[in-house]
TrEMBL record:
Gene Ontology molecular function, alphabetical: iron-sulfur cluster binding; oxidoreductase activity
Residues annotated as domain FAD/NAD(P)-binding: 153-465
Lineage: Bacteria, Pseudomonadati, Candidatus Omnitrophota, Candidatus Taenaricola
Domain Dihydroprymidine dehydrogenase residues, every copy: 17-132
Gene3D superfamilies noted in UniProt: Alpha-helical ferredoxin (1.10.1060.10), FAD/NAD(P)-binding domain (3.50.50.60)
Pfam hit, one: Pyr_redox_2
Matching InterPro entries: DPD_II, FAD/NAD-bd_sf, FAD/NAD-binding_dom, Helical_ferredxn, SudA-like
Descriptive protein name: Glutamate synthase (NADPH), homotetrameric
Domain of life where this protein originates: Bacteria
Length: 480
């Protein structure tokens, strides 16, 4: 057996860093068969426990080895409505791959020997898309039996991000009428405004969403629940239950001097301009975005990596010499970003500076940022996150040229809805509080999941909460 995972083909770094085309090309059939053959079909597969939605990983990989791709597709869709999507953006090295038997004990993330489960899932998802077998209702591939007594109910889904889409899929497959209310003019939430096209092509996202529409899910855009209508008004409109998948859309900042200078973006604004509003196509698209000669991105998560890779592409697009740097106050080991994305960023030319803590942005006489002053750090004892705390080195101040910066240090809960719904209990961070068993909030028949509950997390974690909430909704509706 080959002990080394098969790496999928990728676009060359020099070619891909000048455009927003997809970087990873995925597995061919022969690649998928070779990688699936590495799985030893454990009697008690730990990889399943590592998947937040509990996909039958062992089963679908075996079905790949038998070239029964339709069955593999059905197996995945029993637990996950969006295999092509998740196969591209799930941080598998921290989840299913990390629990693979080939991952060495005490590894901080999946070892080089773990099965590439996510690439196999993507292969099957793309097979289903290309062969038009994704309409599970029309092909006999019914992962969940339709329960007709539930068809008299109507459920409102607030938000069309991963949590909202997943909850909608679970409910509609049980015969429940579902309407998604999305505040933006396009669907997808963070999948569209946060993740760049070179990681998640828009045709893939649109296809997955259209599958839900084909199943009967209605989507109403430009509809802000809490402004357009309140939760009470939705109940008056005949909805029997409501799911809140609002996400976490309020950016956090460093709270340092000079952070309000011109040409300093929150990652939320920067990525929304680039991804949702297609600023990288300007002037064909009407939304501009500034392009600095010396760009600094502050942060160590996937959002920081996405912002840096977008910024570098914009520099090249403008004919500039690429100079995009990520500064992070810990080391690469502690970075929460996906290993694959870090590797891709390095290949494309993004510079990484570790153990650096920004202390002040300095501007010119016109109020535009010109440099960043920072301190060097060492690592101390672990903090509440379990990672070693960065400790400043006294007198280690140094300056970096910076005429544009992106702050990517996390997101907080959007409070548009919670502020006008005082009976909806939230914690000190503004996140909605739920019963962890049912995901029901302090308001009866109102459920929640995703980043609005647990803070900023992964796509698949949001979907795991949404599936639990869908089960809670179904149980409540059955009792009515």
């Amino acid at each position: 057996m080959n002990k080394t995972p098969l790496k999928p083909k990728e676009i060359d770094a020099l070619k891909r860093s000048v455009n927003f085309d997809e970087v990873v090309l995925g597995y061919s059939e022969s690649d998928a068969l070779a990688e699936a053959a590495r799985c030893i079909q454990c009697k008690a597969p730990k990889c399943v426990a590592g998947c937040p939605v509990g996909i039958g990983i062992k089963k679908f990989i075996y079905q790949i080895t038998q070239k029964d791709y339709r069955a593999a597709y059905r197996t995945i869709r029993e637990k996950n409505n969006f295999p092509s999507l998740c196969g591209r953006v799930c941080p598998a090295e921290y989840q299913c791959r990390k629990t693979c038997i080939f991952t060495k004990k005490d590894e901080p993330f999946a070892s080089d020997g773990a099965i590439n489960i996510h690439f196999l899932e993507r292969f099957i998802g793309d097979y289903g898309m290309k062969n038009k077998i994704s309409d599970v209702m029309g092909t006999g591939l019914k992962p969940v039996p339709i329960t007709r007594p539930l068809s008299k109910f109507k459920v409102a889904i607030v938000g069309s991000g991963p949590a909202g889409l997943c909850c909608a899929g679970e409910l509609v497959r049980n015969g429940i009428k579902v309407v998604i209310f999305e505040g933006l003019h396009k669907t997808g939430g963070v999948l569209r405004y946060g993740i760049p096209p070179f990681r998640l092509p828009r045709d893939i996202l649109d296809f997955e969403i259209n599958c839900l529409k084909d199943l009967g899910v209605e989507i109403d855009t430009n509809f802000i629940v809490g402004k357009t209508k309140t939760l009470d008004e939705l109940f008056v409109d005949g909805f029997s239950a409501i799911f809140l998948g609002l996400g976490a859309g309020i950016p956090s900042f460093l709270v340092i001097k000079g952070e309000n200078l011109c040409n300093i973006y929150s990652a939320n604004e920067f990525l929304t301009r680039v991804n949702l509003m297609s600023a990288y196509k300007f002037p064909q698209a009407h939304t501009p975005v500034n392009e600095g000669k010396h760009i600094i991105v502050v942060g160590g998560g996937n959002t920081a990596i996405d912002a840096a890779r977008c910024a570098l592409r914009l520099q090249k697009r403008a004919g500039m010499k690429p100079d995009t740097t990520i500064v992070y106050r810990r080391t690469e080991v502690e970075m929460p970003a996906r290993r694959l994305e870090i590797e891709h960023a390095k290949e494309e030319g993004v510079i990484f500076r570790f153990l650096v803590k920004p202390s002040e942005f300095v501007g010119d006489e016109n109020g535009f940022v010109k440099k960043l002053t920072s301190l060097e750090c060492t690592l101390g004892e672990p903090d509440a996150s379990g990672r070693r705390r960065p400790v400043e080195k006294p007198g280690s101040n140094f300056d970096m040229e910076c005429d544009m910066a992106v702050i990517a240090v996390g997101l907080k809960a959007n409070q548009i809805l919670t502020k006008v719904t005082p009976q909806l209990k939230v914690d000190k961070y503004g996140d909605v509080m739920v019963n962890p068993e049912t995901m029901e909030t302090s308001i009866k028949r109102v459920f929640a999941g995703g980043d609005i509950v647990g803070g900023e997390g992964t796509v698949i974690e949001a979907m795991g909460m949404a599936k639990k909430a869908a089960n809670g909704i179904i149980n409540v509706l059955r009792s009515l």
